[in-house]
């Protein structure tokens, strides 16, 4: 379905903001423009839910979670950053594998099955986008994904 992504994204963020711990701050840097994508809303909700849950789960007291959206000619680029414990550079790709969890002892107490991001990658692949992570140990993690933008209707010239 054709979905205006910023309205959709803001709704998902709102839902988390209502229930989040008080010592975590949300900051949005999102465009006011309408940006249309062709997506399965339920599936994208699953992706965004998992990425935000992870950011919250691994955020320290007083941490800020930043939500950004930018575009280039053809795609929308979403990024969700936290100031959590991060991970070593050689694991940022593995976290998208099924059942992979960084440092089992560290994350066991935080719960989870290690499937969330593997499912997210399948969903984003099916939408012809990409999803990846950037991280610095001890500084935080950013998860980014892209979605193809629907071409804007041209006006005037044929
Ligand atoms: P599930 O999502 O199935 O409940 P999970 O959150 O452990 O379990 P994923 O969402 O797939 O699984 O994440 C895989 C692993 O990647 C996590 O266990 C964690 O080690 C690491 N990870 C994911 N996001 C972050 C983050 N924001 N900061 C630090 N580590 C992260
Ligand atoms: Mg998860």
TrEMBL record:
The Histidine kinase domain covers 1-151
Its annotated compartments are: Cell membrane
Keywords associated with the record: ATP-binding, Cell membrane, Kinase, Membrane, Nucleotide-binding, Phosphoprotein, Transferase, Transmembrane, Transmembrane helix, Two-component regulatory system
Whole protein: which stretch is covered? 451 to 608 of 608
**Chief location bin:** membrane
Q: Which GO terms describe its molecular function?
A: protein histidine kinase activity
Query: What is this protein called in UniProt?
Result: histidine kinase
């Amino acid at each position: 379905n054709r979905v205006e992504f910023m309205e959709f994204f803001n709704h998902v963020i709102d839902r988390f903001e209502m229930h989040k711990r008080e010592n975590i701050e949300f900051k949005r840097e999102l465009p006011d423009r309408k940006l249309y994508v062709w997506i399965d809303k339920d599936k994208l909700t699953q992706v965004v839910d998992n990425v935000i849950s992870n950011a919250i789960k691994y955020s320290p007291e007083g941490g800020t979670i930043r939500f950004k959206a930018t575009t280039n000619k053809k795609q929308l680029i979403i990024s969700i950053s936290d100031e959590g414990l991060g991970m070593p550079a050689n694991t940022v790709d593995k976290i998208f594998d099924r059942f992979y969890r960084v440092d089992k002892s560290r994350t066991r107490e935080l719960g989870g099955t290690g499937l969330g991001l593997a499912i997210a990658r399948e969903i984003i692949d099916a939408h012809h986008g990409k999803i990846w992570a950037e991280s610095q140990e001890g500084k935080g993690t950013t998860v980014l994904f892209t979605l193809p933008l629907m071409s804007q209707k041209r006006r005037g010239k044929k």
